[in-house]
Amino acid sequence: MKTIAAMLTLGVACWAFGTQAQTFDTRLLSQYDASVLRELYPVCRHTTVSAEQQVRLAERIRQENLRFAELIRCDGGVLAPASETELERMRDNALREILTEEQLLQYYRYEALPAAYARGREAKKIVSKQLQLTYMELKYVNNAFFVIEQETQAAKKFWRGNPAEARDRIRSAYEREIAQLEAKSGIRIDKQMRAVRVVELTDYAPLMPAGK
Fold first, then answer.
1. How far apart are CA 49 and CA 98, in angstroms?
2. Are residues 187 and 197 in contact, defined by beta-carbon separation less than 8 angstroms?
3. What is the predicted pLDDT for the residue at 125?
4. What is the number of other CB atoms lying within 10 angstroms of the CB of residue 97?
């Protein structure tokens, strides 16, 4: 099956979190307006969505667009805060009702990409001012904080009605990534972003205590 990415010359490739590019059901091209399909595309692109789910999402987005037209007409050309909230709730409800938990988390991770990239760059800059890092160590720091931020943003959205669960998920992701960073690089970073090298790479052993 052709992908809508090819038809729109958008280019389909693997995204940063590792999810394979997903196939858009091109049969929808003859059933829905381009504005609906353009909003549906990111969901299909970054999650594994069945053809039946795509149809259901397209219909909900169509209804949302119709409601948008009604609200902006009533609001005199500029959406009121209450109208924006209503539209956001419509989209969120559609995603939660149609997608599975894992699909929804995949999509929220995709939405978190800009913040995750920024967090990774920031972490590299902060740690580089404290330690001399190799190219690979810079990558390890970047990747750890990229994932931490991505999982943090996804958890906040997914469990926004359950703050305790969101905090547990965020803490678990943070502890996991920091532990993996230390295991791979020998660098320990605390929550105040203070970095120390507890072990160092050598020519004779993968990791040795710093200063030995």
1. 10
2. yes
3. 96
4. 10
| Residue range 61-87, pLDDT digits in tens | 999 999 999 999 999 999 999 999 999
- Copy the structure tokens of residue 18: 């590792």
Name the residue among 208, 201, 195, 181 with its Cα closest to residue 131.
195
Per-residue pLDDT, 26: 84
- Dihedral sign, Cα of residue 132, residue 18, residue 96, residue 88: positive
Q: How far apart are CA 170 and CA 178, in angstroms?
A: 12
At how many degrees (to 10) do helices 34-46 and 101-111 cross?
A: 100
Task: Mark out the alpha helices in the chain (DSSP H runs).
Answer: 4-7, 34-46, 51-74, 81-98, 101-111, 113-128, 135-158, 163-185
Q: What is the DSSP letter of 112?
A: T
| Distance between CA atoms of residues 164 and 159, nearest Å | 9
Taking the C-alpha atoms of residue 162 and residue 166, their distance in angstroms, rounded to an integer, is 6
Confidence grade of residue 25 (pLDDT, cut at 50, 70, 90): confident
> Which residues have a Cβ under 8 Å from the Cβ of 163 and sit 6 or more positions away?
none
Closest C-alpha to 16, from 129, 137, 146, 132: 146
Instruction: Indicate the pTM of the whole model.
Output: 0.77
